Structures are given as structure tokens and as C-alpha cells.
Amino acid sequence: MLSLTFLSLVYGYLSEKSLAIRWAIFLASIPIAVAANSFRVSATGVISEFNPELAKGFLHTLEGGVAFAFAFILMILFHVTVKKILAFRGRPATA
Fold first, then answer.
1. Exposed, middle or buried: residue 8 (CB in 10 Å: 0-12, 13-18, 19+)?
2. Cα separation of 92 and 81, whole Å?
3. Alpha-carbon distance 67 to 73, whole Å?
4. Looking at residue 92, what is its pLDDT?
């Protein structure tokens, strides 16, 4: 979770001028990280029921990387959605 929240700060700083949208990206990264980690833990549990060896080593690490990438993509989609909503409402996306 800490990695994604830090990445959200860097992403917000580099991609957005509006401080309010930067805060929104940061705050949204917390439930996104929790959801992605919940998915990863659940997937590890299901996989370990079929073959406990798959829940260790390379596949476990790969699963964590995929969950992190999925969470980062969700964060970018959140950013794009917020900007589109603000544009639709006629507000400028920058402060």
C-alpha cells in the first residue's frame, strides 16, 4: 500500500497542476491499494488450494507485480475519470 500511495504522489505531481485533483488521486490510491491487495491475497489462497507450491516463489512475486500494475492502472483511470467529469461540468481541470 505504501508503494502505491507514494507512486500516486509522484504521478499526481508530474501529471496534474490542480492541487485538489492531486489530493483526490492520493486519497483514491488508498482504497485502490487495499482492493488490489485483497485480490492478491484471495488469489493466492485459491491457487494454494490447488497447488501449494504455486503460492511460493516466482509465481507469488509475479502475482504481486500484476496486482500492483492493476492498481496503478486503476489509479490512472480514476484520474482520467475525474478530469472528464470536471470537463463535462464545465469546470477547468486545472486550478
1. buried
2. 14
3. 10
4. 62
Q: Where are the domains of the chain?
A: 2-88
At 24-62, the pLDDT tens digits run 999 999 999 999 999 999 988 888 888 888 788 888 888
Helices 57-88, 2-15: axis angle to 10 degrees equals: 40
Nearest to 85 by CA among 36, 20, 29: 20
Residues of the chain with pLDDT > 90: what percent? 63
Buried b (16+ CB within 10 A) or exposed e, 41-80: eeebeebeeeeeeebeeeeeeebeeebbeebbebbeebbe
Pick from 65, 75, 62: nearest CA to 8: 75
Q: Give me the helices (H) in 1-95, please.
A: 2-15, 19-50, 57-88
